[in-house]
């Protein structure tokens, strides 16, 4: 069964690899393995601004978005970082929505490979147009940065839309998830977590060109002591035209249980653009 799920997620990842993004709400799958170096699990909603979630409940049945971010430097410090992501959202009717946000991060510093992060997920929302809705998901990730061979997460819970207006959206989701992590250099863990996500998207001003998108995940373990994970993302974007936006993205993530020699906290700041339908 795991192989079937794994294969399906890989297909989704390959399909959207050209450049990545993500559709608001529903439930994200675990914060992509480490921000500047990543972190990962559960509903990870990489805020890929642009269309307030309030607008996601429009008559459109299919939404897609591709983004690419990165930084580069040469000279005394040689650094290359590229992030590709995609957001796919399919709404066949008002009762069911299927979403996926696969991503890939590649980084080198001083000629050495630092990041090679894969993240894929499949999320389902029930009664997604209601103020209170149901969520379910499965996610997989692999992280060179945190020395993770495979991490599988699956869970279910509810979401509540606190604010849902044309230029402002705020939602809170709470889920119970099961996580199994295969570390390269540390004892594997099998743990249950409670995951709370705060997601907000705002577009100040009358033009609607500028958007602020933010998400915060709090994921304490409920079956293991002293095991806690959290991550946050802030995206500032400016829409150049109907389909293309410039953006800058700040990511920070913390994971208390890491392999020897790895830091618990990671921060990343990148610039890029997004393309959406």
Automatic annotation (TrEMBL):
A Pfam entry, by short name: DUF481
Lineage top rank: taxon: Bacteria
Bias kind Low complexity: ranges: 28-37
Positions of transmembrane segments: none
Segments of this protein annotated with the region Disordered: 25-46
Record's keyword terms, sorted: Signal
Signal peptide interval: 1-21
Statement: the UniProt record of this protein carries the keyword Signal: yes
Protein name: DUF481 domain-containing protein
Organism: Runella defluvii
